[in-house]
Specification:
- This protein folds into 5 domains: 63 residues, no CATH class; 124 residues, no CATH class; 222 residues, no CATH class; 109 residues, no CATH class; 108 residues, no CATH class.
- It has a 3-stranded antiparallel sheet with strand order 2-1-6, with no helix packed on it. A 3-stranded antiparallel sheet has the order 3-4-5, with no helix packed on it. The protein has a two-stranded parallel ribbon with strand order 7-10.
- α2 packs antiparallel against α3, α19 crosses α21 and α24 crosses α26.
- The chain is built from 30 helices and 10 strands.
- The longest helix is centred in the middle third of the chain and has 25 residues.
- By secondary structure, it is mostly helical.
- The N and C termini lie far apart (91 Å).
- Keywords: Cytoplasm, Immunity, Metal-binding, Zinc, Zinc-finger.
Length: 734
Amino acid sequence: MPEDVLMEARQALAEREAQPLHWYQCSNGHPYPIGECGQPMEQSRCPDCGAAIGGVNHRPAQGGRMQAARNNDATRPGHILGPAANRPAVPIAERALSVVATCVVRLVVHAAMVKAATNNQGVANVIDPRPPNPSLFLWQHLELDLQQLGRALGRSADDAALFMHLILHNLLTPGAQAAAGDWSSKASRRQWEEAFMVRCVNPILHRGLDAMLQQANAALHTDDRLSNNPLLQLLCEVVTPRERLDLDRLADLPEMWRHRPQINLESLTQTMAENQLQLPVLEKFLAEKEVLEAMRHLPDILRLQKLLITQYQGHIDVAEAMSIKVSDFLYKLPEGAVYEEFRQLVESFRITWNLIRHLLARTTSQAVPRELCQTTFDPIRTSLYHLLPIKRTVVPTSCSTALVLFLASAHNSFVQETQGHAAAQSSNTSRSVLLSDVNTAHVVCCHPDQDLLPLVLSHCCYSLAVGEGSRVDYDLPALERQLVERFVSGKPRINDEFETFVFRQETKNVAMYKSLRDKIPQEPLSKAVQMHILQELGTLTNVCSSLAAVDIALIFLATTGGDPNTPIREYLHRVLKMTATAGLHSMKANQHCRLKHILSLWQLLAVQRARMSLENGQDPFEDMPQQYGEKLDKSEARTLKEALRHVNVDSLLAELYELIAVAEEQTRLPEWSMMATLSAYIDDKNAPEVEGLDEHFPPTILLKHAYHTWRMVATYRPHEDQETSRRDANRLRH
């Protein structure tokens, strides 16, 4: 049965970390550690359910609970596999057990429970959740166990059942019997499982299984109680063959209905296990058939990521990406080549996800929600977010990111495995390729049925003798050598650095702006040019459209750089291929603005959009953190109004908006001084100081008042303030 591994994980992390870890759990009970003092300083998401965890400045995350995690083994007792229909068709090894041993243990357990359920209804009490019909429930598991055992052995259901008879017969021999197992602890249970596999399963599995099955079949058809059974004689091929066969009535010939062992990958795996051959590359190809099939689709998934980046980069936020369903996205595409390409790429993604999602669920390196790994890909239910290449540090990560990193790692493991193999000596295994440049020629592409199985068939010799069954001999060293030469030799390693998707709220961050300033030295626009641009733009629609174009340009320029004297208009339309209706909706901006002015232009447009939104009764900061939204009290508001009489209001408005809108790598704490933080921010980017800021701005105003402060500055009118002062002075005279 599956088991809880939290305590082992805690012990492993404790041995690795220099300082003790403090364990907490999210609102849904999933554990997570905090180091050092044990108090939260960063906010994140639970990798299991996405709930808020951690916090800021020793304060718990909104909606989270700083609840101590459990400190005990939570392995559930009893039968916890659920319905047989929920189990994968492909058998999976548990703990230190082999795949065959896992199938055998489960089959023995279910057989005992089926027997007990016929006489004792108390068996249902150990099944969680309790089924309405325990006997049928357990029988379905028993049937699946036998199917999985046959698949693991590469043999028919009859041979799998006979194999179990051999196991049970071996259990009765004195050498295989052991003292009653102690199952009270996890360690003792694992010790018993390993002893069972070594004493009871491996002797049958690794000591000529073919010969043992033939001997068992011979014992069956020579048994006096069964030897006169005509059907058994036909099945065991002890009937004298006919001299002439009626080829017109093939369906009536017993010879046509006899079972012949198939030559497939499972039977080859079993042959290698029986002979205990050391062929690591061939073993890896056979053990990772699903991964091999999935790796063929890696170039398609990367192509899908590039197209989605081109279409949505910087245009949507996380909430929008989560709300858009894949089916809705495909429905809105125009019919023709574009739709067909996206449909095929999404289909490749679907096939890949459904192939290896159960492997991702067992991989701790990618924080994919376990609930997501348990469901198949459905375009109607799956959001567009999971097709986007999200940063690997974001929790929860997207399915697309997890798939790409998993497949790149799997490819590299195949390349690594073949190093030193004679067939790969002539190839250059040290070269690498960027993930963004990967194509089909770079990837280990080997479909299990279309590529691997034909090679197996070409390296085997199949013979058949009446009464003796079939015999299959393999040239396994030659098969391994050809696998390396055909599929792995010459393949480069894949560097897993890849272009990640940038959401709208991520387009503005200090690191990106610094990178752009380093690549393209910036100059401010003159006051006259700024006023001219704003007059030509006029409406909020034009301002927003122009700002959207500049936002996209900033993302690319921060990465690629450019000539400072290149006109922004030329960059938007010639380099970024924007349409004629997109871009800057100001003739003055198109004529005058160069790439060296782009940050000044962005600041101008962003502040103007915020001011116009405020005038229209809209919140200019609705997409930004609300920890800076505390209002000023009346005394602080009066002090700020007085200070604005001595400060350059336009410069303060622009720099304060940028401070709020541009995210810092480390979260700015709400209790920090606004004046000190703003001054330091302006100094870091080598911008001109705001006149009067250090001398007159109130030191009692903090970052938690940022939104309210900006609104007061945006609505401040010097002439109205002067008129109010004159009225107050006249009132005092009278």
